[in-house]
Amino acid sequence: MDWTILLAIGLFAFAWLTMIYQAQKDSWDTSRTFGMFVFLVGATCGVFLDNLLSAESSLLPWIEPIAAVIMLVGLFIAWIWRPERDAP
């Protein structure tokens, strides 16, 4: 493992811990917490799956577009989508 991989792992660990801390500190609602979780899953997959798949994998050219779509879905869930609340 070279230093760039270690730096990326450290930055993503910091991002995950920051998300968990902010969710607890600011009392995020469920949709925002889940949306940011989905966003970070997409970002993490986009960065690290290149190293885990073999060069012959048919998924290799699709990793980054799929990760980008997952990240956009996460942002949609976090910022736009609000589940309907039951009226009293």
Characterise the protein shown here.
The chain has a domain at 25-81. The chain is mainly α and 88 residues long. It has helices spanning 3-25, 30-52, 63-79. The longest helix has 23 residues, at 3-25. It is built from three helices and no strands. α2 packs antiparallel against α3. The mean pLDDT is 88. Helix content is 72%, strand content 0%.
Helix content percent band = over 70%
Main beta sheet, described? none
Structural class: mainly alpha
Radius of gyration, in angstroms, nearest whole number: 16 Å
Tell me the span between the first and last alpha carbons: 56 Å
Shape: flat
H-E string: HHH
- Beta strands, count: 0
What's the mean pLDDT score? Answer: 88
Summed up, what is this model?
The chain is mainly α and 88 residues long. It has three helices and no strands.
Labels describing this entry:
single chain; flat; 3 helices; 88 residues
List the helices and strands and how they pair.
Layout: H1 3-25, H2 30-52, H3 63-79
